[in-house]
Amino acid sequence: MAYILGHSPHEFGLVPDSDGFVPIKELLQVLHEEEGWRHIRQSHINEVLAGPERALFHCDEKRIMAVEKKWEFPVESISTPEAKIYFIAIRRRAHGHVMEKGLSAPPDNFLVLSPDRNSALRIGKRKDPQPVVLEVKVHLACAKGIKFFQFGELLLCRELGPQYLSGPPVKEQERKARSKPPSIGDRLAQGLQAGTFELDAEKIFPSPGGRRKGRKPKGWKEERRKMRRKR
Fold this sequence. Notes:
about 230 residues; Arc Repressor Mutant, subunit A; ADP-ribosylation fold; alpha+beta
């Protein structure tokens, strides 16, 4: 934990916030990716924070950081990235949307790009077991004014337009999954067009104010009494 948080978070695809904190959930995901550490749970971290090593870390309910940091957060953007192509992995459900609209980072956060496809895949699997890996044309983006920040071997940015991204084609089933489901009215209309007959809702569910006025129609018992009187 001291090495990951204090020495080289970028080596494990972690980007601390501006205060140096990392979500405990993400730290656990990183530990589970390492051979021999997959058994680690929140309770083990709690034991460390309650033991003699607690002075090495600051922690709140959801975040943790190393007291002594050997890394520096990037302040100035770079003019020329080391590699022409970087990689980023996205959720499958977002594939079609990203190829049409591009990517933008959450508030106070960054998009994390890696020069290595496998590293990008590893980071992406923390959000989707089978993410889609995209190539990012960083040199073209730099030339158009997109700001990138170097963090170890990782490259950070706030947003990327679709013109800077390339990847596998969007599958037809993914397009259908992203389409808006039909409303109840549309489904009823489709059902009526398929050879069904229209039901009169007023007859099936008469409203209280729609009852007939006047006397209730005579039933068979009243008709029988009337016949007896005539006799």
